[in-house]
Each structure stands twice: as structure tokens, then as C-alpha cells.
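Course assignment 3, question 2. Fill in each field.
Student: A.L.
Task: Predict the tertiary structure for the chain below.
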Amino acid sequence: MATGRELRWPREIELKLALAPRDHRAVLDHPLVRERLEGRPRRRLLESRYFDTPERGLWARGAAFRVRRIGHDFVQTVKLADLPRGALADRLEWSCPVEDFAPRPDLLPAELAERIGLGADAVLEPLFETRFLRRTARLRWREAVGGLVELELALDRGTIIAGERRERISELELELRRGSRRAAFALAEALRATVPLRLSVADKAARGHALAGWSPPPGRAVRPPLLPTMSAMAAFAGLLHAVLAHWLASETAVQRSEDGEAVHQLRVALRRGVVAFALFRPLLPAAAHQRWREAMKGVLGGLAELRELDVVHAELLATAEAPEEEGLGLLAERLARARLRARAAVRKMLAAQAHGDLLLELAAWLEREGWREEADTRLLLRQDLPVADHAARMLARTHKRLLRAGRDAGALDTAGRHELRLAAKRMRYAVDFFAPLYPERKREPWSRRLRRLQDLLGEDNDLASARHLFAKVIAAAPKRERTALARAAGFVLGWHRHRLAALPHKLEKEVARLGALGRFW
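Answer field:
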């Protein structure tokens, strides 16, 4: 938890966007930029070196430590990320002058050094450096709602260097110095009309660590704080900010690593977003609800095949206790090729301008509270009701759907089990979203039982996915391989069918145990 001293440190609040080097001039020439410009844009050559402990202890705590040369001066800076806030970076930033590129951890305030786990005698080693030309412009204007806005626009073009490896820098930073956060998004949307822009949460430090061989970890879901007196839509905004932060961090990991967990976390983020829109549907304009849910489901669809291939490889093929057989090796090889193709397709989808536009539009809609723009007076009044009232209604409704889907659980066919899995997932996310409103001792049994039910249904779903994928792989293989592949696929499916033979009985028990739990809402 931040101390009072820490809260007085400067904060860096900025929106980071990627763009092509050829588009830098178009940003400075945009009518809104020229109209709001104060003074002349500046050009500076900046050279920075980033440091960490041999164990990368600072980066593990969300801290970046650098020394930057600006002309003849050297400045040491520590940036520390707080809880993620959607697409907008909001970080503590502390700086002091130093003599040269040698890091001086002994100059850090005690509270900051303790927070990032860095002693005055700590050994720091250089990891990578950045060299880039920065063009900055100070913008100032007055909004009709929100008052005066002061913003620094920075265009960076250069290189990240880690040993023999290089990566290009070409980005736009909109740092908010004064005014509403939505002002930065409004300017970004105006610029996007003429300049292709993409949200970027991977700052120079994150990209440098990845270039130096420290792959970005997959994003993780964060539960935002809720208070019973908070309005329902303030709670929705907090949930969606957390979803967007999870989405962006996971997407970066998918683009930069081969870790199957990154794809899984990206799917989790999107599913949580879909459920968040479903849970707040009674308070959302119909068009907005439909648009964003369908958009997120579309991205989920584009990730499905890669995730299924990852699961089949790691949790079905690798765990089946099979004898040595040529067909199994051949099946694994064919699946590996399919995974490479699927990963390339996912990365292409995520890199497309249409996907970048979607993220920026959603982030801007969230920041300006777009759900109020399309709402009539009656809906506006309902949006301001306490979240506790809304949570109780939605938990009751979601619970009813779960009980209906779980009726005669042991006799459900594949389609019925799929419907039960979706209902259990929605209930689990609802419990997690609204958890801060209720005592842990009452809601934790629900979370535990829902996790168990999801695990059982997830294994069944994985087996159904495997059948589909194996059939696809066999059909695409040369005829001379199909018999061996079919034999290997049949063995794997049979082994796991036998392992899951007791599934109907276990489902009956888990649904009965859920039904016996007392409601906590």
C-alpha cells in the first residue's frame, strides 16, 4: 500500500500509441495539434540505459530503473506501475540528477527503495539501452466539459539495443499534465481519423526487457475495488478498466512469446469482458451492449483454434500414457505444424489495423463513459443506483440460469454440458466481480465449488475439441499417414474417455452441492 510520502511523488499519466515513422509529420500537421500548440515543437536526442539486479528483482516488482542523458545532463529515474488502469499508463515517477551513466541506488528515498526491494549497496547491471530522437509539443485548450487541458505530445523515433539485438522505436505519447483523462483519448481518436494509430502498453522498458530475453509474463485478471454505495456504472467502469488492462497485457505477451498461457489469459480477459457486458446489460443502451459483446466474441473466435491446439498438445496428447508408437509421434508433429500456422494467424489478426481500432475505440468509449451518451433519462437514473442492489439482482438471475442448465446434470449430452459450462463460467465470474461486496466466508464456498464444476466441464470440452482437431489434422495429411494418425488419435481419445468415464456421476454431485449452498447475496 502506498504511503503518504509516496502519494506526493509525481505521477506520469500518459496514453502510448504506436505508429509508422512516415506518419510522424502528419501528427504535428494535424489541425487540432496546430490549433492547440503552445510555442514551437522541440527536438532532442535522448540516450537511456536501463538497469536491474542480476535476478531482475526490480522488473518483477513492476519497477523500471534508468539513467538518461539529455544533452550534457544525466537524470536517474525510477518508474513504478500501480494497479493497471485500462489503456492509460498511470505510474509513480521519481527522478534526480546524477553525474554520469553509473546508477546511484543510494540516492533513492527510503520508502521507494523499500517498495522496490533495492538496498543502497545493491548491485545493478545494464540490460539494454535506447537511443531516439524526441520531438515534443505542448498543447493547451479548454474543453466545454472538464475545463483546461494541458498535454505534452511526444513523437519518438529510434532504436532499442540489447547486445546484438535491435528493435525500432516509433511511437506517440500523450502525457496529461492537467485536465480530464478523457481529453487524451479524444485527441487520439481525432488523430486516428487521418493517422493509423494503435494502443500500446509495452513501454520502452517492457520492450527492452523482452529484447534482452526476459519475456513478458501473461496478463492476469485484477479484481477492482468495489463499495456497496458505489453507483452501478462506476463499478462497471472499474471492471472494464481491469478487463482492458488484462487484455492489452496478454496481447503483448502473445505477440512476444510462445507461451500457451498468454493465449489462455487473453481468452480469459475477453470472456470476462463478455460476461461484464452481460451482467450490466439492463443498464446499458442496447446498441452499445450488442456492439462491444459481439466485437469481443469475434476476437475470441479468432483465438479458438490456437487455444484448442495448445490444450490438446499439453493436456491430452502429452498426458496420455501411451506405448511407443510411430503414429503418436506423427500426430504430435502434425499438431505442432498446425499450432505454428494458428499462432501466425492469431498474431496477424492482433496486428491488423481493425483490431487496433477496436481497442482504441473501446478505451475511448470507456473513458468518456459512452454508456451515458446513448441512454435516455430513465436509463440514466437506473445507472446511478447503488451497485449492491444491481449485484444482488444479477447474481440471482445468473444463479437461476445455472440451476436450469444443471437440471439432470448426469444425463446431459454434449450440447447440454456445453451450456452448463457457460452458465458455470458466468456464475463464477459474477461471484468474482462482485466479491468485494460480500463477506469472504459466505462467498468462498461458491467460488470453490464453481471452480471444481468448471474443471470437470473443461476436461469434457477439451476432449470434444480434440475430436474435431484430430479429424481436421487427419483429413489434411497425406493418405499414406492417415491410418497411423487415426490409430494414434483413437488411442488418445479412448484413453481420456476412459479417464472421464465417471464424469456424469461427478457432475451430478457437484451440481447438487452447489444447489445446497446458501445464497450469500
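Instructor remarks: Strands lie at 11-18, 37-52, 63-70, 73-81, 89-98, 125-143, 147-162, 165-178, 198-199. The chain has two domains: 4-214, 299-516.
Grade: pending
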